[in-house]
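Write out the 3D structure for:
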Amino acid sequence: MLKAIDKKGYSEPSTIQEKAIPLILEGKDVLASAQTGTGKTAAFGLPLLELIDADDKATQALIMAPTRELGQQIAQQLVNFSKNHKDLNIEVVYGGAAITNQIKALKRPTQIVVATPGRLLDLIRRKAIKLGSVRYVVLDEADEMLNMGFKEDIDSILSHTLEDRVTWLFSATMPPEIRKIVNK
């Protein structure tokens, strides 16, 4: 992973990375607010990759993003960071693409799933994904997901994960609705 970080040209952590990474590695829930472009994906992605057990074939982490584009971007960064983790599988699922291909991809052992809420709920309803072993949940751009009306979807999805999971919520802003999710 250090080679991948070096190849990306990272030499100093951004403020969000410096503050979030140690807390995440300690297994704490994290609520982080930082503007777009400040390195939030690395702030949760790098420690997440360290925490995942590549030998465990179950889905251990779920990252939710409001849009297909952000989901694809997150998944690509995680793949880049984990190039030397050959046993680690990361899948991204989102609407607007053939669900049959995504179901087929999820049949392989997949430790990390990056998803948009709508497509993930569809996969849960079809019993194409099991989230019962998810220990780490990331809500990226949580404010945008709320603005897009995904609150009930997120609640439903989280009900399928472990109760004692660790949750990391990243958001550019902290509206009152985010605080309600945090308290819940």
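The first helix runs from residue 2 to 7.
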